[in-house]
Amino acid sequence: MHYAYFELVGMLVGSYLFSDTLAWITAYLLLFLALEDWHTERIHADILIPYIVYLFIHSWSDPKILTTCTVMIISLFLVYYRQAMGSGDIPVLLLITLTTTAQSFPLTLLLASISALLYLVKHHVQRLPFVPFLYFGWLSIILIEKIVTSMTS
Question: Which has the higher per-residue pLDDT, 19 or 31?
């Protein structure tokens, strides 16, 4: 039953925040992956691979390809060498990299990290699902961008 509430809120907030189809698709994919990660601490990130390939091809001439490759290399290091992240976080980070601007991506990571740190301190847990915090950071930065853009125009 609570998934229906998230879908309703997603539609209402999404109608304000997202003006293009790619943002809608990204928002709903991240919403369901965030809910899955919150409840099971695992996600089926494989569903993002075709969409990431499409976005990668779509953004081929864009400078964010270098950022995407850098994020992928750092994420692979953190997952397989340091074991500091889950492997499902890599496609989510790549998706956020490909759908945000160069200024929005670091702010999204910063907001997600701060909110996750506050959650860790408050609830005294050792592990936490990071995708919901990435989704929160991504939505918050998009909302802030929309507010700032509407105030300046």
Answer: 31
Read off φ and ψ for residue 64, nearest 5 degrees.
Answer: -70, -10
The per-residue pLDDT for 6 is 66
Q: Which strand (E) or helix (H) includes residue 34?
A: helix 21-40
Number of folded domains that form the chain: 1
Per-residue pLDDT band for 1 (boundaries 50, 70, 90) equals: low
Name the helix (H) or strand (E) containing 36.
helix 21-40
Question: 114 in a domain, yes or no?
Answer: yes
Q: Which residue has the higher pLDDT, 55 or 24?
A: 55
C-alpha triplet 57, 98, 87: angle, nearest 5°: 105
The full DSSP string for 43-71 is: --GGGGHHHHHHHHHHTTTSTHHHHHHHH
Identify the sign of the CA torsion 99, 33, 85, 137. Answer: positive
Structure token pair of residue 30: 């991240």
